[in-house]
Each structure stands twice: as structure tokens, then as C-alpha cells.
Amino acid sequence: MTEHVAGLLLAAGSSRRLGQPKQLLPYKGRTLLDATLDVARAAPFDQRLVTVGGAADEVVHQVNFDGFKVVDSLHFTDGCSSSIVSALSSLAADTQGVVMLLGDQPGITVSAIESLIAAATAGGGPAPLAVCRYTDGIGHPFWFGRQVFSDLAELHGDKAVWKLLESGLYPVTEVPIDATIPLDVDTWDDYESLLAHDQVQTP
């Protein structure tokens, strides 16, 4: 791979709906965030960043961030876009694209990340935008090419990334993934659904 690709894992949420730091929820003998970090470690990234904000002190002391640059998202309560903006200045100068992952979505696979990168870097240069097209809809991870970094720097609010994807300003490459959208955790019901799903998937 000739392109310099960064992985950005967003883990700065304040877990308002859950009532406690979801990053630290027990998951497969460790924490939920540890599990998603392991996925990013196994992916072909040249640089790995993770944003923290909500319960940052607890998270930093309990989670293994080896191999990651930890970015403090000072305005994390303004939504995930603030975390993206906070991380942009930490990207290597030659970064051609960023793959965005969610810290509460441990079911994302390395193969999905690899397929996304391959599609986004095929041809004459990095695509501006690329997303995973699962069997039940669009989901993370997302790809942002260098040509949209200035747009990312202007994002505001929690759904700003989706607004950029749907703006029509850039073509969006859809990468087919033969699976359903990985579960994420915003509420206790989500957490219980994730644990139940994993029990079903485990032989």
C-alpha cells in the first residue's frame, strides 16, 4: 500500500444515556474500548489515533492505549464532530486518508476495514468519501480522503459526518460488506443486545 492511512477511533462520548462510562463496560474479559482498540491494532493503518473526553481520567488509567496517539477532545459534549476536529492536527503530514471507527462498536471487522481502504485507494488516487454498505444499510467504518480534511475541520454537531456524506459535494464510494451493521452501545439495552449477540455467535 502506497497511501499513508490513519485510523481514528472515536471514544470521547459522555455516555449520557447509559449513566456510566461505556468505554469501561466489561466485555470479553476486558473493557469495551479495549476490544475496539484491538480491532484497530490489527488493521493496516500507518498511524492510529483515539479520542477521549468523557471520563477521560478513568479511561486513560484502565484501558491499554499502546500503539495509539491519545487525543483529548476538549469539546466532546458538542458531538463526535468535535473529536474529529480535535484529531486532525495530530495526523501525519503525508496522510492521504482517515478511516473513522467508533469506540463502542467492537463488531467491526478487520476485513471490512481492509475492503474499505482497498476500494478508497484504488485507481488514480484516494477517494474523497467511502462507506461500508452492509446488508441492512450504511455503517462504519467510514473513509475520508485528504481532499475533504478542510470540510472535516468545519464540522459541528453529532450528525455532521452524515450530513457531509449526504451533501452531494463529493462522490461517495460504497463498499459492499456481507454482514449486518455491527451493534453499537448507547443504552443498557444496546449493551445487553451486544452480549446476547456474542453468545449466539460463540460456538
Summarize the structure.
By secondary structure, this protein is an alpha/beta fold. It has seven helices and nine strands; from the N terminus they run βββαβαβαβαββααβα.
How would you characterize this protein structure?
This protein has 203 residues and is of the alpha/beta class. It has a single domain (4-201), classed as Spore Coat Polysaccharide Biosynthesis Protein SpsA, Chain A (Alpha-Beta Complex), CATH 3.90.550. Helices cover 31% and strands 25% of the residues. It has 7 helices and 9 strands; from the N terminus they run E-E-E-H-E-H-E-H-E-H-E-E-H-H-E-H. It has helices spanning 32-42, 56-62, 80-88, 110-120, 149-152, 160-165, 188-201; strands spanning 4-11, 26-27, 30-31, 47-52, 69-72, 95-102, 129-134, 137-145, 172-176. The strands form 2 sheets. It has a 7-stranded mixed β-sheet, sandwiched between helices. Strands 2-3 form a two-stranded antiparallel ribbon. A hairpin with a 2-residue loop joins strand 7 (129-134) and strand 8 (137-145). The radius of gyration is 16 Å and the shape is globular. The mean pLDDT is 87.
